[in-house]
């Protein structure tokens, strides 16, 4: 479904101040001017306030890390500290990452675990500070009382709406005169300004940021929205980071590393990879060594539109507004661009005080990006 600038079930399209609905024109422009907005499609609802809020929740964590630099017997140590002891309960089966050894938690005091090593006939393997521990599940005693209640705290997230506006003015003479290739100068000017506004909306959705002081806006502070890139914290992978594949060119090793890490850190389903022209060419080169052509073929196909891996099928979207050295990995089901109710892109004719007609194109939008750990970003890539 193309981006039209309106919410799917919006009641704002018939408000009195809506002089002219331009959503059909946006739908025509969006596949070419705003490929990311077109890929995301229209949201199912409006934003109800200039400070748009939503609620996020997470499952209880089922992994932690050993945080104990005093382990003296890695193969036989039965008590060690972890970073977050509250994640563990007596009766948990746990397993170090990359190990075949199982352990059974027999006591938890603060951040210190007491365990049975080599549980269930497994063989003890060395443990060390910083090692990831996975919780397989808890084994309750038959007939025991219910365990202590555990829960996560829901987080309240927010972003701000941003007003996008442009003015249109055409003289009386210009309106009366004939034009080559144009039926109506005013309509032409509306289309041109609207192209610029939807272009700027996509650019802001990707790259925008909010003011550090008074982000809600005032008579002297402009209200701006936070874009996708500045929402991301958990899954940012940079060339040169420890464990990240070497080299500066985007390749399959880097893409699969990012997809795997996001999959491990969340229950997100990456289905959209957003890149600029430089990195899109790198994606096309993934297939370069496997192409073959018959002697009768006269068309060379050098384009890849989707990438299928063990972690999902990802549509590749190319937009002019992505930073050249970056690649975005998005779960599109958790990303929405919402208009403020009654403020989707529209044209308002304004009173003229002379021999001209004038008006204003205006729209107010915000970005809702849920569960930032379900998305990711690679940066520092070669742009040559």
Overview of the structural elements:
It is a single chain. The protein has seven helices and 19 strands. The protein has helices spanning 23-33, 35-40, 172-176, 185-207, 228-231, 252-265, 277-284; strands at residues 20-21, 51-56, 63-65, 79-81, 92-96, 102-109, 112-119, 132-138, 155-160, 162-171, 236-238, 272-275, 306-309, 312-318, 327-330, 335-339, 346-350, 356-369, 376-379. The strands form four sheets. A six-stranded antiparallel β-sheet has the order 3-8-5-6-7-4, with no helix packed on it. It has a six-stranded mixed β-sheet with strand order 11-19-15-12-14-13. The protein is elongated and about 90 Å long. The two termini are 34 Å apart. 29% of the residues are buried.
